[in-house]
Specification:
Distance between the termini: 43 Å
Helix content: 40-55%
Shape: globular
Mean pLDDT: 87
Number of helices: 16
CATH class of the largest domain: Alpha Beta
Low-confidence stretches: 1-11, 283-298
CATH topology of the largest domain: Rossmann fold
Largest sheet: 5 strands, parallel
Strand order of the largest sheet: 4-5-6-1-7
């Protein structure tokens, strides 16, 4: 089982690790001090969109309920506004994202958002906008949004969601109040994930959180997916290539059949572990729950024993050079660069072998 119950879908306030953000925003709303532009930022898979939708429903709900839970208050799930919201037909809610087949949010879409935000609420309450991912806006669409972020219509809240705030224009960021969603402590995320996984969920939750970099929703998505099998395949190909059992073209051909962004992330994590194995003679495994878990330090400790023999084959300079090459390629992929996977991986592999 890896889905949310109907009750969660209709009345969810926030996830267990989002209580402080929830209290902050619901308190500001209750006191009439809620900013009209919010920037929800954090790595993918930590639940920003679920939070945004839960908070949007709370803003639109006409009969919010107070509870004894840490979340303190949430949408009732029963009023007309809640039913319309859950059915995705609420006239005062607007969600904007790239159109199907596109990676960018066009300026024409932003103009539709501006027109929506400038009108009065049809049901007499708030108007709420979610724009995701905000970093998908190009310069023109971002500039078109600036005036609306500064002066939206009365009782309008615009929530921008992003995994990469650094890709947003500074003028966009400066017009929003930032709400940060860090990777949660395992103490909060692991029990939640285990409850979603069902039988023997506790043991699987720990493993999936490790593989997902501590990101609970990413971990939930991995359950039953091909990702783990593909990752093992990537490691086997890399190990065979590094051991000179597989030639460059054959290794690149095998890896090019896997998602390029995943291949880069997996390889980067393994080279992080190689560096740590060289630095710490007694290094046994990487505990994500005690690490910074930031994007630039994504180690993958489940392969540590298999990596140990290779740590002796590399010079430190080679490992750090590989880090730089992987980060550079990852940046190109994230920016939507048009790469030939086979050629990109061939070039990458040339720099990875000791």
């Amino acid at each position: 089982m890896n889905s949310f119950s109907p009750d969660e879908a209709t009345t969810r306030a926030c996830l267990p690790w989002q209580v402080s953000q929830w209290k902050h925003l619901t308190g500001a709303f209750r006191n009439g001090k809620l900013p009209h532009a919010l920037l929800l930022q954090g790595q993918s898979g930590v639940g920003k969109e679920l939070f945004a939708r839960g908070f949007a429903q709370r803003l639109l709900c006409t009969a919010p309920r107070s509870t004894q839970s840490p979340q303190s208050e949430q949408a009732c799930g029963q009023c007309r506004n809640c039913h319309l919201f859950v059915a995705d037909t609420h006239p005062d809610f607007f969600c904007l994202s790239p159109e199907e087949g596109s990676k960018s949010i066009r300026v024409e879409q932003v103009r539709e958002l501006i027109a929506f935000a400038g009108k009065k609420a049809q049901l007499g309450g708030y108007r709420v906008v979610i724009l995701k991912p905000a970093d998908a806006m190009n310069v023109n669409s971002a500039n078109a949004l600036l005036k609306c972020l500064e002066e939206p219509g009365k009782d309008t809240v615009i929530m921008l969601l992003t995994d990469q705030p650094g890709r947003l224009l500074a003028t966009v960021r400066s017009r929003c109040q930032s709400v940060v969603f860090p990777i949660p402590e395992a103490l909060l995320s692991e029990p939640w994930l285990a409850s979603k996984l069902g039988v023997n969920g506790q043991a699987r939750a720990s493993t999936l959180l490790e593989l997902s970099g501590g990101r609970p929703l990413r971990a939930l998505a991995l359950e039953g997916s091909a990702w783990i099998t593909e990752r093992d395949r990537c490691f086997d190909v890399w190990r065979s290539y590094i051991s000179r059992q597989t030639q460059l073209v054959a290794a690149a051909d095998a890896l090019s059949k896997l998602p390029l962004n995943d291949v880069i992330e997996w390889l980067y994590g393994w080279y992080v572990d190689l560096a740590k194995l060289q630095l710490y003679a007694d290094f046994i495994e990487v505990d994500r729950r005690e690490s910074d878990r930031n994007e630039a330090d994504r180690s993958q400790g489940d392969k540590i024993d298999l990596l140990r023999p290779f740590a002796r084959q590399f010079a430190s300079a080679q490992i750090f050079s590989a880090h730089d090459r992987l980060l550079a390629l990852r940046g190109i992929v994230l920016r939507g660069g048009n790469l030939n996977p086979q050629m990109a991986i061939e070039g990458l592999l040339l720099s990875l072998r000791p």
